[in-house]
Amino acid sequence: MRTGIATVCLSGTLKEKMQACAIAGFDGIEIFEQDLVTSPLSPEEVRKMAADLGLGLDLYQPFRDFDGVTPDLLKANLRRAEAKFKLMSRLGMDTILVCSNVATATIDDDELRASQLGELAELAGDHGVKVAYEALAWGKYVNDYEHAYRLVEIVDHPNLGTCLDSFHILSRDWDTAPIEKINADKIFFVQVADAPKLSMDVLSWSRHYRVFPGEGQFELAKFMGHVVRAGYTGPVSLEVFNDVFRQSDVERTAVDAMRSLIWLEEQSAKWLESNATAAASEQKAASRRRYPMELATLPKVNEPAGFNFAEVKADDTAQLEKLLGQLGFEFEGRHRTKDVQLWTMGQARVIINEQAAQHAEPAIAALGFDVDSPVIASARAQQLKAPVVARKVQADEEVFQGISAPDSTEIFLCQGSPDGTAAWTHEFGEGLEHPGSDVSAVIDHVNLAQPWQHFDEAVLFYTSALALEPQPFAEVPSPSGLVRSQVMETSDGSVRLVLNLAPAQQAQTARKTYQEHIAFAVDDLVATARSAHTRGLEFLEIPANYYEDLDARFELEPEFLATLKELNLLYDRDANGEFLHFYTATVGSVFFEMVERRGNYDGYGAPNAPVRHAVQYDSLHRS
Amino acid sequence: MRTGIATVCLSGTLKEKMQACAIAGFDGIEIFEQDLVTSPLSPEEVRKMAADLGLGLDLYQPFRDFDGVTPDLLKANLRRAEAKFKLMSRLGMDTILVCSNVATATIDDDELRASQLGELAELAGDHGVKVAYEALAWGKYVNDYEHAYRLVEIVDHPNLGTCLDSFHILSRDWDTAPIEKINADKIFFVQVADAPKLSMDVLSWSRHYRVFPGEGQFELAKFMGHVVRAGYTGPVSLEVFNDVFRQSDVERTAVDAMRSLIWLEEQSAKWLESNATAAASEQKAASRRRYPMELATLPKVNEPAGFNFAEVKADDTAQLEKLLGQLGFEFEGRHRTKDVQLWTMGQARVIINEQAAQHAEPAIAALGFDVDSPVIASARAQQLKAPVVARKVQADEEVFQGISAPDSTEIFLCQGSPDGTAAWTHEFGEGLEHPGSDVSAVIDHVNLAQPWQHFDEAVLFYTSALALEPQPFAEVPSPSGLVRSQVMETSDGSVRLVLNLAPAQQAQTARKTYQEHIAFAVDDLVATARSAHTRGLEFLEIPANYYEDLDARFELEPEFLATLKELNLLYDRDANGEFLHFYTATVGSVFFEMVERRGNYDGYGAPNAPVRHAVQYDSLHRS
């Protein structure tokens, strides 16, 4: 698949954008006109720079408001087009995007439109230019890709074809199957963008909320499957703009973009595999490469089987040790060569890393996931452009395959075991006795705060590299704004990751109003809480008003309610089961949660989240 | 008018919210249930705190999903309601908001709903509570205020009335005239919120985009006019939540909120005045106070006649002096008692203030506006809670009435004169000769960057205190994101203020990518540019590609195009006229623009803004 990206997707100057595209490994780019008009680089300099960077200049765009106009306007439009054709020749470019008219069309007549597009194609032919005509979702008369293609068919000129843009097609809910009927020679270009499903006017949706494939909810693999089946072999190019990308680091966005195309390529191949038509099956029998477009494959991974460990880091780790001890974790000793400690409770393993920078507050540093094959999983992640994290190891020590998540959390791909144990634990506490624990506990979920610039990127990262499934997102009120909460989990819930997008902080206040946490699941939360209480654990203190409201909502047994209140436990119930949980006080930016899932309760106690946020806000504010 | 605000409008803890409401001067508040549930304050403590702060506790809210349910659910709902009634008695509150059912209603039958609401009213009566039933815009079966009122009429119980919420009514485009037919005794509460007109699902619109009255596009004065004519005399309370307020400083938001109600009160009175019905006219003749609700009035001002001056400030003012001199401004000398200089060009007056903090870069510090009466204008602004700015004056010097705009720009209300001169200029350059200038120039517009937290507040500030009219906003692409641009102007265009909301910057980069500027209008821009060029002015350098594109779009005379290109002039044209302009290089965060308006061109060269942003970005990035 030939990969491309429009310069409008990226922030910065044209030069910065082109360099970032080359670094990320794109085959070609679309030149967004405004980027050229505002650039001090001459067309010839742009051409040379692209050649030096190994970037194809695949599409000049956009040319607006051409068709369906009065003769006067047509004349001016042809003059304007010819100026652009001449410019393209200086750039060494041969394809221009012409969008269906939004602003100046006054005549709704396909014959007239065809005749005007024919004149344009003829002029383009004189300059060696191919015109890719695209139906904008909000085009005045032409807003449907099949309509645009009908016009191309009527004109029947070698220099006129169509451009298919997934956003303009899927935002309008047009059926994508008819793409297969389009003559592949007439598809001059394909643009892809994803988006969250929003119910709003399509122009604002397009302008503010497009995201890279895999970061939204469009059925892009299916769209691409139809495009591939049509026989298209040209560039598949990203045209994505939203309020975040344009403000983000250009090189990083380019890598995120490239990752989305690599992932889309794999997903498209999978879609084709599982949606093979009879005809396609025959073709498959005849040849391994079923379609003209070659779709690269990635190393295959299953979803992780569980958390292998979680790692917290601090300069002074005393508070962390105290909290874990009070929760009932056992100290399993220090590592034989590194300044790290291991604490366990059943199969829940927490590493305390003492190698933090001076004065660094406690924070979540790393997560280990159980995978079938760490090497294959790492190869996949690296092909998806995940940065590699190196860990020093001594002889005989387990080599962890590590990658860096968008928020800089280190992700380690570990060899899972059928019984949930981890082979590397023997590297800790040499000479210490390790009595078998009788407590059954696991890491239930981990909640990571995401910087706003990298939230969508993180969703794609965990989807593509770790095979986690994004769930519908929720918004939780906190005293300082709505917290967007995105659950990523495996189908059986054995790995649950919650990505929280904290509200932007006021620059003038230093208050940190959001933290991260690790939650452990136990079989008997009340007993766990009682023991922790005895050991002196500082619980997050839940207001009395909460228990009154809880009673009004759930009509609980008075004795049970009294226990909840006494131990600062939170409670939730739904049709599937019950959920009990409590939180510790926060140290640095970390706190811990203990949960008990009863029945098939599958959530996270979302109705209680505002209480947690408010109490944490209040205690930070008082301190 | 009794003013109120829901605690959900504000950030922070319940205690912080209540204190801020008292400081801003609200008569009462609505307690948002979650704020109480998450608070460590007991109901009795909240009651005492409200009494101490002089705040009425006017509404407990919301009670959700009551009506149209199965008998089982009804029983649980009544139990839940009774718990809340008891809680309200501890709070000393007598009115509760009950929203039409969204989630649990399964039976669409008005008779059943009425019977269930009747049971609720009966129970409420036992506890001395009044139920205000409100139709949510997205209620499952009841989403129209007239429908909600019909149910209230059917039940006909003294403890059941309705709540009118402007958002739920205007977002659905319901006709507001029928409000007048509602029995005033049955209107238990009125909530107001404004919003920009967006085409999106009403729940997301409500949750993220509500703004205070005067900051959006709803016809709130008309809504309130009908409410007043209905005979309602209770609280008018703000229920506004969006992504900005909840993250902003609580006291400041409360003041912004209060300003919006004061302004709404005046606008409602105006609406009633100009929409007097025959019946109302008779009533007016009979009595000065026409309606039971008393609407306070504000000192009246007309829109300003022009800019009196603009002031820039710096520690080292040499660069500013150089720029103004090169542009053709005359140095009119220093002030006789202060460290400020006056520079003029025709009626365009720029004060350079040298009293800046050490190392302070050049920045726009103040704007003077010509008003009919500075004292009346200042009184109005102060009643609208604008902070006062004091300036030291010596005997015989003009006393400026100053207020502080939301972005901290100082706004001075100056005595205008018919010929556009300013009396205070004689305080400058004593002993210097002041040859009459033959150049005709005025301040055309000023462009101020707004912090994102104060953008909506700024719109209301300039609307209410300075009588400027907000125009539809535009979004301008820049290399680091979309810049939201909001023009505020007088009806004749003699004062034009452009408020720009710069994209949030990446925390990790220190690059400043957005600046403010002052634009001056002259009669002959080409001549002005030539003279400035001769004086060595550093123009913002416009890329050659821009002129090629300009020619493609406008087919300009080759000689004219060559002049534009030679002098780095920008050009725009629309049906009304032509616009020529150029920019200087930036010093600190300020640059200057020179413009020439030909014909009736009324814009700001918006198509050229991306060029300016890109070139400024590029030059900052290179330096």
UniProtKB/TrEMBL annotation, chains A, B:
Keywords assigned by UniProt, alphabetized: Carbohydrate metabolism, Isomerase, Lyase, Metal-binding
Q: Which residues bind Mg(2+)?
A: H445, H517, E593
Under the heading InterPro entries, the entry gives: DSD (IPR043700), IolE/XylAMocC-like (IPR050312), VOC_core (IPR037523), Xyl_isomerase-like_TIM-brl (IPR013022)
Give its E.C. classification number: 4.2.1.118
Work out whether the entry's keyword set contains Metal-binding: yes
Can the keyword Lyase be found in this entry's annotation? yes
Q: In which pathway does it act?
A: Aromatic compound metabolism; 3,4-dihydroxybenzoate biosynthesis
Q: Where is the VOC domain?
A: 306-416, 442-585
Question: Which residues make up the binding site for a divalent metal cation?
Answer: E134, D165, Q191, E239
Enzyme class, first EC level, given as a word: lyase
**Which reactions fall under this protein's catalytic activity?**
3-dehydroshikimate = 3,4-dihydroxybenzoate + H2O
- Cofactors: a divalent metal cation
Report the GO molecular function annotations: isomerase activity
PANTHER family named among the record's database cross-references? HYDROXYPYRUVATE ISOMERASE, XYLOSE ISOMERASE-LIKE TIM BARREL DOMAIN-CONTAINING PROTEIN
The record describes the protein's role as: Catalyzes the conversion of 3-dehydroshikimate to protocatechuate (3,4-dihydroxybenzoate), a common intermediate of quinate and shikimate degradation pathways.
Task: Give the family, as the similarity comment puts it.
Answer: Belongs to the bacterial two-domain DSD family.
What this protein is called in its record is: 3-dehydroshikimate dehydratase
